[in-house]
Automatic annotation (TrEMBL):
Origin organism lineage: Bacteria, Pseudomonadati, Pseudomonadota, Gammaproteobacteria, Enterobacterales
Source organism per UniProt: Providencia huaxiensis
Coiled coil: none
Keyword terms: Carbohydrate metabolism, Isomerase
UniProt key word Isomerase: yes
Entry protein name: Aldose 1-epimerase
């Protein structure tokens, strides 16, 4: 699987690409951050955009909440922006206090990716990150493809290769509101199911303690569908994060990309979204820090949208005791692939 021949992404302004399927569903994407900007469902009641996004590309360059972005090299947090591989110590870009968040100050969400549109329903974004970029070792080649199928699935496929052993943890940071991005309904009005028996407690900076906590008997138990708002801010873990901003360890029987790992239902029940992935964990983030963010039809505020970031666990590079399945370390000259699918039922 050779990598797509990439054009110089420093030339020109960010591109906007639209994909449509035979049902009239449409998504728009931009080469700035390989980002997902809109998702328009053709409902009987009219068209509804169910993802948060900036009003235009210029505004998208100004936002810093990762609206729809591909984040990397390493999604989520690296404690104290440090790690070691094979006895060699690395210090990377710290952009959340002492810690590295989503790849550092100049992470992938801020870059213009090269674009190769394969069809009316699929596009590939590509990026090369040089050795030493944000402090990370090895040259990294990345491809992210979006496909909109006639089954109303948005399939995001990731492919990467590095020249040195390096943590790589790519994810998508789209915020969803199935009532519509301009709705007064918040994520707290949505019903959610997550097939995961454990979650990772964190400190106030989002750094995991290292423990895996059983969801049984906790407010993190979404194994049966419940409103996100039902048990909201009812425990110290949520209070510290301002809501849900935690990683769930997904049921290992579900991470084959064919079984649903999570389902979200709109407040009125007229739209449902099922999530499929090959990644072992997922960050649930209820948009706790969306503060007056310019959106397409309104200013976004806390809980305007919810993100489901499929990934390796946060700070996993510093927790080898979690095991190989949860390790983000990519070995040189191997091609790694993963995918996540968001399927809309309406």
């Amino acid at each position: 699987m050779p990598f797509t021949q990439e054009k110089d992404p420093t030339l020109g302004t960010p591109k906007v690409i639209a994909l449509t399927n035979k049902n009239g569903m449409e998504i728009t994407l931009t080469s700035l951050g390989a980002s997902w900007m809109s998702c328009i469902l053709p409902l009987a009641s009219g068209k509804r955009d169910v993802v948060l996004g900036s009003p235009n590309v210029d505004k998208h360059t100004e936002q810093d909440v990762y609206l729809g972005a591909t984040v990397g090299r390493v999604a989520n947090r690296i404690a104290n922006a440090r790690f070691s591989i094979h006895g060699e110590n690395y210090s990377v870009s710290a952009n959340q206090g002492a810690h590295c968040l989503h790849g550092g100050k100049d992470n992938f969400s801020y870059r213009i990716w090269a674009v190769s549109q394969l069809s009316a329903q699929q596009v590939i974004f590509s990026l090369t990150s040089p050795d030493g970029d944000q402090g990370f070792p090895g040259e990294l080649k990345v491809e992210v493809s979006y496909e909109l199928t006639d089954e109303n699935q948005v399939i995001i496929r990731y492919k990467h290769q590095t020249t040195k052993a390096c943590p790589v943890n790519l994810t998508n940071h789209t915020y969803f509101n199935l009532a519509g991005e301009g709705s007064e309904k918040t994520v707290l009005d949505h019903a959610l199911t997550i097939h995961g028996d454990y979650y990772l407690p964190t400190d106030k900076a989002g750094i995991p303690s290292g423990d895996w906590r059983d969801v049984t008997g906790s407010y993190f138990d979404f194994r049966q569908s419940k409103l996100i708002g039902r048990d909201f801010l009812q425990d110290s873990d949520q209070v510290a994060a301002g809501g849900y901003d935690h990683t769930f360890v997904l049921d290992s029987a579900c991470i084959d990309g064919r079984k649903s790992v999570a389902s979200l239902s709109a407040p009125e029940g007229d739209v449902k979204m099922n999530i499929f992935t090959t990644m072992p964990t997922m960050q649930l983030y209820t948009g706790n820090y969306l503060v007056s963010v310019p959106g397409k039809t309104k200013l976004y505020t806390p809980f305007s949208g919810v993100a489901f970031e499929t990934q390796f666990p946060p700070d996993a590079v510093n927790h080898p005791e979690w095991g190989e399945r949860y390790s983000p370390i990519s070995q040189p000259n191997q091609i790694y692939c993963s995918e996540t699918c968001y399927q809309f039922i309406f």
